[in-house]
């Protein structure tokens, strides 16, 4: 559910970003939008799964 919401929001953000007359550092900004956000999302998701797994194993 969170992933789907993020996909929709990023699609809109990227669409609007591409309309902007970016002259400097466009490649860096695109990298953040298209890759950086997903790297961070996966990192946070992994950390949350590990915490949930520890809580699950600790409660048995």
UniProtKB/TrEMBL annotation:
The protein, known as: Uncharacterized protein
Organism name: Candidatus Blautia faecigallinarum
UniProt superkingdom: Bacteria
């Amino acid at each position: 559910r969170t992933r789907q919401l993020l996909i929709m929001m990023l699609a809109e953000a990227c669409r609007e970003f591409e309309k902007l007359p970016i002259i400097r550092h466009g490649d860096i900004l695109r990298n953040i939008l298209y890759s950086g956000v997903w790297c961070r999302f996966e990192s946070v998701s992994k950390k949350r799964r590990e915490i949930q797994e520890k809580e699950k194993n600790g409660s048995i």
